[in-house]
Design the sequence.
C-alpha cells in the first residue's frame, strides 16, 4: 500500500499545477540555493514573496518567516489562517501560532481570540517572556499589553459560512479545503456541513548566514469545539527547527500530528540521514500505520535541511507547497502522497 504508487500519481496530477518557473518533484525532493523559503499550500506563494523581501537583503530567517506568515493572516480570502478564519462551532475565531529560531528559542499562542497577527504574538512570547506557550484569555491579555489591537476577526463572509454550517451542524473534517475554499464566498461553499475545515501555513526559511527558522499559523479546524487546539502551536508537532539538521512543519488534521509528534519526528529522521522527502514520507507512514482510518483525512509535512534540500509528503493528493529562492519566487509543487 505504502509504495511509489502515490508518488507517481501525485507527480502526474501535479504537472497541471506547475506554472512558469516550476520545478519537478522526485523521491529525493528538490534542492534550493541559500537563502530560500518554503511554505505550505498555494497561499504560500505570496507569503514566500514577503519572506523573500527580507531574505534577499541578507535578513534573518526569523524575520523572514514572521513577515511571510503575516500575509495569509491578513488575507480576507483565506478562511483557514488569521482574520476571516472560520470560527469554532460557537462562532468564535480562535487562532494558534508558533515560531522557532536557529538557537532553539520558540514561542507560541493557542486559542487566541481578537488578535489579527498571532504569529507576532508568538514571537513576543518567545522574546519577551520566560515561557513558550500562552493560551486563551492569558494570551489575549499579554497581546494587548504588548500593544496588539483587539479586533473583531469574524468577517461577514465567515459569519455567513458559519451560519450556513449551523443549519445542520455536522462536524466532519474535510481534506485539502485550504485550496478548495480559498477565495470562495459563502454562497460557493457547498452543502452545509460539507465545507471547509482547515488549515495552516507552515513556513521554513534558510537565510544567507545558513540559519534556519520556522513559523506556523492557523485558525485551526473550522467549526471545532470551543477550546480545541491543533498541532500548529505545539512545538515538535506543528513546527520544529534544529539548526544542526533542518526544520519541519505540518498541515492538516492536527490531532494526528500531535499523536506522532510529527515535525520533531521529521527532523530526527533527517538527523539519521534521511532526505527531507524521505523523512516526511516516513512521518506520514507512521500516522497511517498507527491509525489506518487516517487515510480519509489529510496531513502533510514539509521539510528542509541545512543544505537547502526540500521535501514533502501527504496522506492524500491535493497538498501543495511553495518554494522560493533567487532562481524563482513563484514555484508551486504538488505534495507527493500515499493516496
Ligand atoms: N493543522 C492545523 C490544525 O489542526 O489546527
Sequence:
Amino acid at each position: 500500500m505504502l509504495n511509489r504508487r502515490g508518488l507517481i500519481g501525485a507527480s502526474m496530477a501535479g504537472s497541471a499545477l506547475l506554472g512558469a518557473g516550476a520545478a519537478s518533484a522526485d523521491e529525493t525532493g528538490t534542492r534550493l540555493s541559500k537563502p530560500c523559503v518554503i511554505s505550505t499550500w498555494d497561499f504560500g506563494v505570496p507569503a514566500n514573496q514577503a519572506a523573500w523581501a527580507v531574505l534577499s537583503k541578507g535578513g534573518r530567517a526569523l524575520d523572514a518567516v514572521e513577515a511571510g506568515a503575516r500575509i495569509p493572516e491578513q488575507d480576507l480570502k483565506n478562511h483557514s489562517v488569521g482574520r476571516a478564519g472560520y470560527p469554532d462551532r460557537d462562532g468564535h475565531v480562535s487562532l494558534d501560532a508558533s515560531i522557532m529560531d536557529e538557537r532553539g528559542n520558540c514561542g507560541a499562542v493557542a486559542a487566541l481570540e481578537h488578535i489579527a497577527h498571532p504569529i507576532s504574538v508568538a514571537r513576543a512570547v518567545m522574546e519577551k517572556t520566560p515561557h513558550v506557550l500562552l493560551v486563551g484569555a492569558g494570551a489575549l491579555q499579554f497581546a494587548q499589553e504588548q500593544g496588539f489591537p483587539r479586533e473583531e476577526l469574524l468577517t461577514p463572509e465567515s459569519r455567513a459560512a458559519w451560519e450556513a454550517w449551523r443549519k445542520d451542524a455536522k462536524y466532519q473534517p474535510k481534506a485539502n479545503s485550504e485550496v478548495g475554499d480559498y477565495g470562495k464566498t459563502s454562497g460557493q461553499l457547498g452543502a452545509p456541513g460539507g465545507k471547509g475545515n482547515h488549515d495552516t501555513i507552515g513556513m521554513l526559511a534558510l537565510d544567507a548566514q545558513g540559519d534556519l527558522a520556522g513559523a506556523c499559523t492557523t485558525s485551526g479546524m473550522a467549526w471545532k469545539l470551543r477550546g480545541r487546539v491543533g498541532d500548529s502551536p505545539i512545538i515538535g508537532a506543528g513546527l520544529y527547527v534544529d539548526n544542526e539538521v533542518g526544520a519541519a512543519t505540518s498541515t492538516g488534521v492536527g490531532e494526528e500530528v500531535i499523536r506522532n509528534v510529527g515535525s520533531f519526528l521529521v527532523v530526527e529522521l533527517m538527523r539519521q540521514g534521511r532526505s527531507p522527502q524521505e523523512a516526511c514520507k516516513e512521518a506520514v507512514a507512521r500516522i497511517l500505520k498507527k491509525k489506518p482510518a487516517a487515510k480519509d483525512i489529510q496531513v502533510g509535512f514539509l521539510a528542509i535541511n541545512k543544505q537547502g534540500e526540500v521535501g514533502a509528503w501527504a496522506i492524500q493528493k491535493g497538498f501543495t507547497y511553495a518554494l522560493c529562492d533567487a532562481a524563482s519566487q513563484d514555484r508551486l509543487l504538488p505534495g507527493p502522497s500515499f493516496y
